[in-house]
Design goal:
Chain A: GO terms for molecular function: carbonate dehydratase activity; zinc ion binding. Chain A: Its EC number is 4.2.1.1. Chain A: Belongs to the beta-class carbonic anhydrase family. The complex is a heterodimer of chains A (239) and B (223). Chain A has 10 helices and 8 strands. By secondary structure, chain A is of the alpha/beta class. Chain A folds into 2 domains: 37 residues; 201 residues, Carbonic anhydrase (Beta-carbonic Anhydrase, Chain A, 3-Layer(aba) Sandwich). Chain A starts with 7 loop residues before the first helix and ends with a strand. With 223 residues, chain B is α/β, with parallel strands linked by helices. Chain B is globular. In chain B, 48% of the residues are buried. Classes of the chains: A alpha/beta (239), B alpha/beta (223). The interface between A and B is large, with 87 and 90 residues. Bound molecules: zinc ion (2 copies). The site of one zinc ion has 7 residues of chain B, from α6.
């Protein structure tokens, strides 16, 4: 029987039990080690969009990435939810990298580009993104292609979000004390690739993710891909 | 695990669980040249997943759901607070715009957030956020105090916290109105265990929970 005809709820639970059995068969230490604690190197701040599963697209494993995902990856300085995540990840878990990731074809970005009310609490939540749109109204209006305009506002949104992150006092302390790094990136759904936008603590870099060799930067190995953090920016390459 | 199960699993989930960036992208495109084109066109996830930020619980990996199948919000200790615009926006968008069919609140045993909340210590910025967990404890103090084993008491608090957050999801106007009109979404409470990697369904009874909640929190405009 094809899994497509099964109820997705039942599918998820049965798939989980198959996954758990497979993982422990492959490596009997896998779950005991997970149970002993977490020490992720990366805090990922991304969009809730179902097409951007961070651990999956980075080829990493459970235990590698601490995650917060919200509508349109908006970083609002007074949002207690995101602030608590940052505090916990940076001050307690001492992650080495904070990665803010936007994406192409973001529904939140599209909503901010439009003039219609979205409804409920969403208009309030999207206020920072609306502000980005207004600050760059001419540039955005000059872009004829709808998809390209959505990508541009997503980039500007990440740039604005990184500024908020760099102004966060906990992040500032840990940049000073132990060289915490902050990166702004964009996930292109059309190709499945992540691009470094060069904001934050790294210097801008023209090349897309996956460019050079491993170099001498810090390396985080996933099952299928390797994330490389250099002083001049982050990169990713497939094994 | 039986050899047969492993074979079935590999057949079902190879390409599903440990995808990756570039080789992943190439593989997806090869398998289905339209994959990214379709993804770019939009999302129609059946699930909203509200889980903990903990690095050990990537929703998609542990459930085998593909990109495009689960809309995801993760915060410290999978909390749903009614004044938090962040999570409220996620629920609103997922229910009213994406029309998800299931909402899963997923906690996990050994949650650092839950543990931190029960530690008698001033945690600064984390105080207001973690306070919600202390409130859950207070609601179930009798039951929890009676559990002598500390680890077992935390495990139970993790479960009770998930159930309480399910209740908070059902208190929203978005869920109540959509359920009345469409018969969905259904709210589920799950807990992930690191010891075995399995998800435990707490068997939250959506219908009766909704019924109880609406005695006080009815937002359907029908009374
Ligand atoms: Zn998005
Ligand atoms: Zn947790």
């Amino acid at each position: 029987m094809s899994q497509d005809t099964r109820d997705p709820f039942t599918y998820a639970l049965s798939s989980n039990s198959a996954w758990a059995g497979y993982k422990s068969h492959q490596n009997p230490d896998f779950f005991p080690r997970l149970a002993s604690g977490q020490s992720p190197s990366i805090l990922w701040l991304g969009c809730s969009d179902s097409r951007c599963p961070e651990t999956t697209i980075l080829g990493l494993q459970p235990g590698d990435i601490f995650v917060h995902r919200n509508i349109a990856n908006i970083i609002s300085p007074t949002d207690i939810n995101t602030s608590a995540v940052i505090e916990y990840a940076v001050a307690f878990l001492k992650v080495k990298h904070v990665v803010l990731c936007g994406h192409s074809a973001c529904g939140g970005a599209a909503a901010a580009l439009g003039d219609a009310r979205v409804g409920g609490v969403l208009d309030t939540w999207l206020t920072p993104l609306k502000a980005v749109r207004n600050a760059h109204a001419d540039e955005l209006a000059a872009i004829r292609d709808d998809k390209a305009r959505a990508v541009r506002i997503a980039e500007l949104n990440v740039e604005a979000g990184v500024k908020v992150l760099m102004a966060n006092v906990v992040i500032q302390d840990h940049i000073k004390e132990r060289g915490l790094q902050v990166h702004g990136t964009l996930f292109d759904i059309g190709s499945g690739r992540v691009r470094d936008l060069g904001h934050g603590t790294g210097k801008p870099r023209a090349a897309a993710f996956g460019g050079g060799g491993a170099g001498d930067g810090e390396v985080i190995r996933g099952r299928h891909a390797t994330l490389v953090f250099r002083s001049e920016g982050a990169g990713m390459q497939a094994r | 695990m039986a050899q047969e199960d492993i074979k079935n699993h590999l057949k079902e989930t190879h390409d599903r669980v440990f995808e990756h960036n570039r080789s992943w992208a190439a593989e997806q495109a090869k398998k289905d040249p339209e994959f990214f084109v379709k993804l770019s066109a939009g999302q129609t996830p059946e699930y909203l997943w509200i889980g903990c930020s903990d690095s050990r619980i990537p929703a998609e990996a542990i459930t085998g759901l593909e990109p495009g199948e689960a809309f995801v919000h993760r915060n410290i200790a999978n909390l749903v607070c009614n004044t938090d615009l962040n999570v409220m926006s996620v629920i609103n968008y997922a229910v009213r715009h994406l029309q998800v069919k299931h909402i899963v609140v997923c906690g996990h045993y050994g949650c650092g957030g839950v543990k931190a909340a029960m530690t008698p210590k001033d945690l600064g910025l984390l105080n207001p956020w973690l306070r919600n967990i202390r409130d859950v404890y207070r609601l179930h103090q009798q039951e929890l105090d009676a559990i002598k084993d500390e680890a077992a008491r935390y495990d139970r608090l993790v479960e009770l916290n998930v159930v309480e957050q399910c209740r908070n999801v059902i208190k929203t106007a978005a869920i109540q109105q959509s359920y009345e009109k469409n018969g969905f979404p259904i709210v589920h409470g799950w807990v992930f265990g690191f010891q075995d990697g399995l998800l435990k369904d707490l068997k939250v009874d959506h219908e009766s929970m909704l019924h109880d909640i609406q005695k006080i929190y009815n937002l359907t405009d029908t009374a």
